[in-house]
User: Which sequence fits this backbone?
């Protein structure tokens, strides 16, 4: 093939600019500013979720006492669910063309959920997890609100399924912690 004429090169560059605009527009039908609020609420949820996840690992490893077998297993079940949700949240942020918070430093700085030591009783661990659930639920509701405001049914659908599951886990851990 011969070398391109200047004209051909100009035409190609125009076409690729046009394609780029086309794809940016087609990307979910939302512009970047449209999704800024959703992304912000997703990042806040992500930071809290990461700290919660690490607490579950801490408690899975370090729980002792008569409830060891129950709690050791339940905490594992919970952290497996958490890690899947965390991945979905971060990838949803990527879908909108933003970069999710990705460092532990950022998570610690932005999380309302706080870490604890390892020397807690099983019941203290359960009560920490219940408090975490409540905080996470409030951040999930923020995501739902932002998604509904923007008409973003994809994020709304994702977050609704998280909320439903977390409400069920909240009930189960509450039942476990209730003395009769
Ligand atoms: Fe394990």
Assistant:
């Amino acid at each position: 093939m011969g070398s391109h004429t200047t004209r051909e090169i100009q035409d190609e560059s125009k076409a690729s600019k046009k394609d780029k605009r086309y794809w940016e527009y087609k990307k979910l039908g939302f512009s970047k500013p449209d999704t800024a609020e959703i992304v912000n609420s997703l990042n806040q949820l992500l930071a809290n979720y990461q700290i919660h996840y690490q607490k579950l690992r801490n408690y899975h490893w370090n729980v002792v006492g008569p409830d060891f077998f129950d709690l050791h297993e339940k905490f594992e079940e919970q952290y497996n669910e958490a890690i899947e949700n965390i991945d979905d949240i971060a990838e949803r942020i990527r879908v909108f063309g933003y970069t999710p918070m990705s460092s532990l430093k950022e998570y610690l700085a932005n999380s309302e959920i706080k870490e604890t030591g390892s020397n807690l009783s099983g019941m203290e661990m359960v009560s920490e997890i219940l408090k975490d659930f409540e905080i996470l639920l409030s951040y999930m509701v923020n995501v739902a609100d932002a998604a509904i405001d923007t008409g973003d049914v994809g994020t709304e659908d994702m977050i609704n399924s998280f909320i439903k599951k977390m409400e069920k886990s909240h009930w189960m851990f509450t039942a476990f912690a209730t003395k009769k």
